Amino acid sequence: MKNVPRIPLGDAVVLVTGGARGIGEQTARAFADAGATVWIGDLDADVANQAASSIPGAVSRRLDVTDRESWASLIDEMIAEHGRIDVLVNNAGVMPVGPFADEPEATTDLMLDVNVRGVLNGMHAVLPLMARAGRGHVVNVSSMAGMIPLPGMVTYNTSKYGALGASLAARREYDGTGVTVSAIMPAAVRTELSSGADLSVLPTVDPDQVARQIVGTLTTRAAKTSSPAWVLPAWTLVEAFVPETIERLARRAIGHDQALALDPVGRKDYLERIERHAGRSAAAQARTKSEVAK
């Protein structure tokens, strides 16, 4: 991208949220392998510490992306240590799926808080700093679910549409400041997030491939990048030229309702962790409402 200050990978200070596992961990590793100074932020501090210990030079801290004070604490520490933040990868996300009518309110709140509010909080924390420095780059990990609606994923689709919209709007707002915002939109990724799903009919990628594309946006500064790369242009053509009746038949033929038929046994560990987070989030919201009422 023209007229944007270059950020040399070997000199970059990078923060990756949700960096304890999956795409986040692989992204932290890819930046570190390229010589960047990497910080990992994750709600699961112990797992994040384990990930960081296996990545040369990486540092981990507990980060609740739904809490602006948690963001402020981490950003202040990074600024005190390095004087700047060059790259933020907003990767933290959750994906409980299933029939919309059966979705508990706590699950809805968790998805919107992490997948949308978390992205907004991250950008709110770093974009002004980057703009004052005259350079910086933010990568928001959205999803092709931010463009392709699927049964069983109503709230998840909503959150990822929101993450994509936030990315594109912030990109326009900060145009000309030396700061860029990019959205990465993976299809089905072979991580814990997709555990219990039959991925045989979906375009799939490994987390290290997504990580390489995230690092690549530091060079391209592209507004939107899908993973695999061909999915975005293919879907753009479908939206433009394929009638809904034909699309409906094609969706049924490939079984587009996989989210309604996930294997609960294969997904057990992930769902239990999400339920714990949802319970903590609901309890925190209840405390806040009580304090306001007083």
Structure commentary:
The chain is an alpha/beta fold and 294 residues long. The protein contains nine helices and nine strands. A seven-stranded parallel β-sheet has the order 3-2-1-4-5-6-9, with helices on both faces. It has a two-stranded parallel ribbon with strand order 7-8. Helix 4 links the parallel strand 4 and strand 5. Helix 3 packs parallel to helix 4 (105-133), helix 4 runs parallel beside helix 5 (154-173) and helix 4 packs across helix 9. 43% of the residues are buried.
* Helix residue percentage: 40-55%
Largest sheet: 7 strands, parallel
Distance between the termini: 52 Å
Helix segment tally: 9
Give, in spatial order, the strands making up the sheet with the most strands. 3-2-1-4-5-6-9
Q: How would you state the average pLDDT, rounded? A: 87
Q: Indicate the structural class.
A: alpha/beta
Radius of gyration: 19 Å
Order of helices and strands: EHEHEHEHEHEEEHEHHH
Please report which band the strand proportion falls in: under 5%, 5-15%, 15-25%, 25-35%, 35-45% or over 45%: 5-15%
Please give the number of β-strands: 9
Large-scale geometry: globular
Unreliable stretches? 286-294
Q: What's the quick description here?
A:
The protein is α/β, with parallel strands linked by helices.
Helix/strand layout:
Layout: E1 13-17, H1 22-33, E2 37-42, H2 45-53, E3 59-62, H3 68-82, E4 87-90, H4 105-133, E5 136-141, H5 154-173, E6 179-186, E7 188-189, E8 204-205, H6 207-220, E9 224-227, H7 231-241, H8 244-254, H9 268-293
Helix pairs in contact: 1-6, 3-4, 4-5, 4-9
